[in-house]
Amino acid sequence: MAYLLQQLANAVPLAALYATLAFGYSIAFGVTKRADITYGAIIAFAGQMLLLFTDMAYNRLWLVLPAAIAVGVCASLVYSVGAGVWIGRFVMQPLVSKSPNTVIVAALGMMIVLMETARLAANTRAIWLPPLLNDNVTFWSDGTFKVTLTYIQLLDTALMCAIIAIGAVILKRTAWGRLWRAVIDDPLAAELCGTSASRVFLVSYGAAALVATCCGILATFYYGSMDFGAGLMFGLKVLLIAAVGGYSDPLRSAGGAAGLALVETLWGAYGSFIWRDLAIFSLLVFLLVLSRRERVVL
Fold this sequence. Notes:
Layout: H1 2-32, H2 38-59, H3 65-98, H4 102-121, E1 136-142, E2 145-150, H5 151-173, H6 175-185, H7 187-192, H8 197-223, H9 230-244, H10 250-270, H11 276-291
Antiparallel strand pairs: 1-2
Helix pairs in contact: 1-5, 1-8, 1-9, 1-10, 2-3, 2-4, 2-8, 2-9, 3-4, 3-8, 5-6, 5-8, 6-8, 9-10, 9-11
C-alpha cells in the first residue's frame, strides 16, 4: 500500500508537467491546425539557455548562485519567448496562410536550428545545476517506509497548476479568449467581424512559447539538466499527449495528459522499464486512431 501511494505521489509532478505542456500546445494548435514539434524544441531550448547563462553568471561574473539562477531565468525567458514569437511571425504565420501542410516540415527545421544553436553555444558541454530544494516532505509513514516528495517537486507542481489556472481564466473570461475561440472556429468569419486573425495568431503562438519556456525552466530545475536531443523527444511526446484529451479544448487536453502521466508512472513502477516508452507511444497512437474524425470533402 505504501509503495502504491508513493507511486501516486510521484505521478503528481509529472502529471502537472504533462498537463501544462498539453495546455500550451493546444493554444498554438488552435491557430495552426497542424502538428508542430517546434513547441517541444522551445521547451528544451529554454532549459539549455537557463543552464548556459546560469553557468556564465556563476563562473564568469562570480555571482552567488541565487543571482546566477535569476540571470539564467531572465535570459531563458527573453531568448526562448523571443525565438517563439519570431518563428510564429516569420515562419509559421506565412505558411499557415499559404501552404498549411508545410508547417510540419518547417517545424522540423526550426527544431534542428534551436537544438544546434544551444549545442554550439554550450560547446557540446553537459551543464548541471546543483540540487535545488531537494529536502523531503513526508505525507504518510508506514514504519520505515515513508511517502515523500521534495520541495522542488511541490513547487514545480504548484507553479504549473497556477499556469493552467491563469490560462483557463484568460481563455474563458476575457475578451482575448473570446477572440481566440472565434479565430480557431473560423478565421475568415472573425476577420469579417473586425477581428485581426493575424494578431490573434501571433499572440497565441507567443503565449504557447511562454508556457513552453516556463515548463522548460521548471523541468530543468527538477531534473538538473537538459539534454541537447530533448527537443525531438519533447516535440513528439507533447504532440501525442495533447491528443489524449483532444486539441479543441486546452483544459480537456491538459486533463488527458495528466491521466497519461499517471499511466506512465504506474507502468514504470510495476512494468518493465525497457518497454515503457514503446507501450506509452503505442497507447497514444491507438488513442489517436480511435479519436480521429474524417470529414467528407465535397
